Amino acid sequence: MEKKLDFDRIERRAAARKKAFHGADYLFLAVWAVIVLFPFYWMLLTSLKSYSAYNAEYIPRFFTASPTLQNYFDAFSAVSLGRYFLNTILFTAVTTAMMMLVIIPAAFAFARLDFPGKQIAFTLFLSLMMIPNELVVITNFVTITNLHLRNTFTGLILPSVTSVFYIYLLKENFEQIPDELYKAARVDGTTDFQYLLQVMIPICKPTLTTITILKVIECWNSYVWPRLITDNPQYYLVSNGIQEIRENGFGRENIPAMMAAVVVISVPLIALFLIFHKKVMAGVSRGGLKG
Amino acid sequence: MKVVLEHLTKRFPSRSKKEEDVIAVNDFNFEIPDGKLIGLLGPSGCGKSTTLNLICGLEPPTEGKIYFGNDDVTRLPPENRGVGLVFQNYALYPHLTVLENIQFPLKNLRGAERPTKEQMLERAKEAAKLVQIEGLLERKPSELSGGQQQRVAIARALVKMPKVLLLDEPLSNLDARLRLQTREEIRRIQLETGITTIFVTHDQDEAMSISDMIVVMKAGVMQQMGPPQDVYDQPVNLFVATFLGTPQINVFDGEVKNGWLYIGGDRVLETPGPEDQKVSVGIRPEGFTLDENGPFALNLERVEVMGRDTSVVSTHPASRSAFIRSIIPARNRVDKTKKTVRFRLMPDKVFLFDAKTEERVPFTLPPEGVEG
Amino acid sequence: MKKKSMKGWLYLLPAILFLGCFMVYPLIDVLIYSVEEGYNSASQTYWGVGLYNYSYVLRDPYFLQAVKNTLILVAITVPLSTGFALLISLGLNAVKPLRSLFQTVYFLPYVTNTLAVGLVFMILFKKTAYTEGLVNLMLQWFGASSVDFIDGPYWAKMFVLCFYTIWVVMPFKILILTSALASVNPEYYSAARMDGTRPFRIFYKITLPMISPMIFYLVITGFIGAFKAYSDAVALFGTDLNAAGMNTIVGYVYDMLYGNSGGYPSFASAAALILFAIVLTITCVNLLISKKTSVN
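Output (structure tokens, whole complex):
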């Protein structure tokens, strides 16, 4: 009888502890979620406040009674946000497409073809992965300047095309395709190039999608190189545009309009992410790095 | 320590509202006597492992009670139950040595229960000695063979002197030779320690060879429980009959008429007792006796020589499977040139089952018992 | 055979061209720049070869300020973000309902434009004539006095920079750590529970050793990333980081190249190589430590 009581106490205690732990855990997770989401909420909220209403709030308010879209019109009319936007889309699309054209054959050569010097070439490629961008930017800047390619899309795009890491990632994926498929295709008289187009690329589509998404994120957010290479707003990308807006746009301190621009810039990537969030997260955990 | 399960049920809620809940364990009632080795047997997905998890407390039951001795432990967290569990993949901590792995449970103890360092070492060594791995204490699990890892896992479960030892598919990761050896080993350890031991397996050989009792499960429902030979000799239903025994029991469609069993028109065996009805007939492979004038004629397919016995493979239109396999002593030669082979049947190796419910339909055995 | 060998190189050609022009050549060139003394970018002439560029950079107060800022940033953000990400991942791992929602939310900063969201942070922390700013308002709720985090004292600016950096790097770390935690075989936890292991001991004796390779990976990449901090600072304090006293080493390199003090590729090269040397050293030290720890 005595022992029975003891059991009850142990059971109750264990259950209570579990409950308390879960409660605390959810609270903790929710707090971080708020910290993550709050800036997004704040930019959306501020972008919907009118200029006068915002400036009249000495104590900022957490909601607005009279939302307005005026700031969005301002963002597109007072500064050339639309221009920055189109520039970025063009830059992102061309860079990503060119990268694909460069990395697919390279990965194919490393994964499938046999040629003298392959091992050495691959080792050299791998060692390039360690080189930080900051080292090569200096000469690239001088090169592009000397070629008179500043303030051109060519100058913006060319140095951003290659990525050793993506060649590596794709090569690994190509190598997972069994040899038998290649042999079967050769027996059927398929050329290497046809094999690449008709077998390897379709099979590796998930990896190619992942690489595309990662490259798009990278391009959309790139700031340093465009900043160095463009000083004509005609060629600004969104990152430079937002910095320009911050320092010179909308006269002084039109923060709601600024936030409208920030929302416009952020939306495409967030939308892309929400649609592909599983792919993006899987891709990033396989080797993406910010910066 | 006696283990009693009372109306034990575990339901896993379904993912969507349309699907029904999965009932992994359905209304279990059984009592496991103190100090015995019990084999929990069934095909994969029948709820064996869930039953084990319920007994050790890793999962709470939906309904029912679990008693260890006279104590109700149903809601007790696992660490307070005094059970040892050996996982299918052993779950040895890869970064700890064998000795550290074995000592791990002892180091969790606190207060008065906590042994001194010397006691811990001594107890760990004792457990290691019991499973005969004294020489491997400084190694890492990755440096051990599968069988050695298994022993370490058992030692780790034994070191805290559990009242009940649970083994989840303990032999499934070993190769065939080691499996035989290890199952003897488990039996020896169980006899030496006298701990009530329950192990889960899908391999009937394994369960029958070392258990004091086996429990046969199917789709979350307990089918039969008893000493291995009893269950083999007296299966309660068609499932148990087919599940136990290699080669598998031969199953025919048959009929009972006027106290005789008919298979495909042949009057094959006198089966007094049951009323006239359609039945499923199970005949153990060893239940056939070669007899040129026997009542049961089968189409001879081939004869496989196994040395000690001969396996006769044949077909019959009423058979549920493509081939019928009968095992006869090797001294009885089969004439391979003939197209048919005739048998007499041993009444105690023939089981009748209701055609619909598949429950056993008993008939009276002839008084002389086994013949020939 | 000969035809075949040509073909392999042919497929590699575009990659080799791009990498040669924009990675290999620049790499060699940056070494040359860094030792050309008195390089004039207009006339493309220099008057000597030596280590003057390095000594100039190392004595430049702006560079020293940038090094100090970067070191503080690294020392604060790397351990804090890694530890905090570990806590959050453990928290995530312990719950089932809403887990994937939380994971998606936590990942959002990764896909946002650093510059754009930095602007939001600036507004939240800034104190102007019109408003105290939201963060200051909150500080006042707790009875603290307000402070301008963007144009105010050094520690306040450093605080915002660290806070924003952590906010930005958390998604990656949470993602890596949650998948590392999820990949630990659940049988280990069941086994530990059977033995009545207390949660802290489970964490310390089982979880931590099992995910330690991933933690080291995060620490190393975290160090590298934090040493290269730049856009976060620009987003908060504007392009003229020297004036704000918040420049970073990378920022210094770019400023030397092009900006207010621009047009000195030699100095930029020397500074970039110094940064590379620091990062390389720290990475090697990290690798050594991780090797030693995993041996034990």
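The interface with chain C takes residues 56, 58, 77-80, 83-85, 87-89, 91, 93-96, 104-105, 107-109, 156, 160 of chain B (CB under 8 Å).
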